[in-house]
């Protein structure tokens, strides 16, 4: 039993290592964006003409789509965010398969950027035990 | 690092170009070419060019803020809808609906991310130009549009005895700290903190609507009032005098701009706006509304209170 588990863990370890390095660029970018949103963004206050704001958009895009595609989406959004654009709602393009049913498994930034959906889910789960 | 270099090279070129142009112009009108004063004025010139180029953006933003009055009724409804809902998701939902409203009315009070982001490479390239001057001079090279001669000039340029390319902390570590650099750095750090304080206090006490005063934005502003001096302090001891001149000047510009906005184009619903309307009333000008139609309506209402005659009062009457 314990031996089998050890073998399995040894087999799993390369996968863990590979996954760590595979996601490293994405996670570095996420950390940088979170630091920006926490410490630098408040200096300027809100300037963005869109919902979600550019940094929230970038954070979701990179979290959901990964470093390469996410950066591409984010760069295109920043170029769009100039004074002569009307602004408004501009959500991150969703990937083909979206699993938004269980909020506990959805990254927080995705929830913040799609408040309508997750408020509805919240209301549903709260009303269920009462029914 | 190389990637950063590639991005910053054109900006470095532009920054050095503008400074060289100002420097040439100032020498032409008789200022000494090698003087630190001339180079300091060139840095200030750079600030004027960058902030001046951003004026159209600023004016557009102010105009959009005037247009905000048209959507006040809708905004009030929205605020009523989310009253008392302070959880993050509800706040986000409100922000989302607010953005939808702006789009619907074709007005947006925010100036967008690009103008803010575009200033960053300029700042970084100025930092790189100033901190690269000593090295480039030693190897006899130019920087961007600056010729080797000008680089040598810049490297030796001093203002009140402090070299423009010298910084507090690096000097301290090098063990050759000069009094002029310390004093000048401290003066500019204090000037930056003071101008920031004044700007933010002005916004918070005068140019925010009552709704915004209670929002999370206010909390953030209050926090920044104490975080920013720290940023200036840390930056101030690390950055060369030249960069501090840039930073201080741009801060003072922001402060001046803010004074102008509060005086002439205040946010609707803020204390400054009420004062502004009072001043207009005193001058007999029509009150500002969202559209011409609203102005006409307000003008018709205006003479009404004057029908009631003020009781004449003795000037030296005792006050209770």
Automatic annotation (TrEMBL), chain B:
GO terms for cellular component: plasma membrane. Residues 39-262 form the Membrane insertase YidC/Oxa/ALB C-terminal domain. It comes from the Bacteria. The chain crosses the membrane at residues 12-31, 37-59, 177-198, 223-247. Pfam families: 60KD_IMP. It is a multi-pass membrane protein. GO terms for biological process: protein insertion into membrane; protein transport. The keyword Cell membrane applies. Keywords: Cell membrane, Chaperone, Membrane, Protein transport, Transmembrane, Transmembrane helix, Transport. Interacts with the Sec translocase complex via SecD. Specifically interacts with transmembrane segments of nascent integral membrane proteins during membrane integration. NCBIfam families: PRK01315.1 (NF002350), yidC_oxa1_cterm (TIGR03592). Required for the insertion and/or proper folding and/or complex formation of integral membrane proteins into the membrane. Involved in integration of membrane proteins that insert both dependently and independently of the Sec translocase complex, as well as at least some lipoproteins. Aids folding of multispanning membrane proteins. Belongs to the OXA1/ALB3/YidC family. Type 1 subfamily. This is Membrane protein insertase YidC.
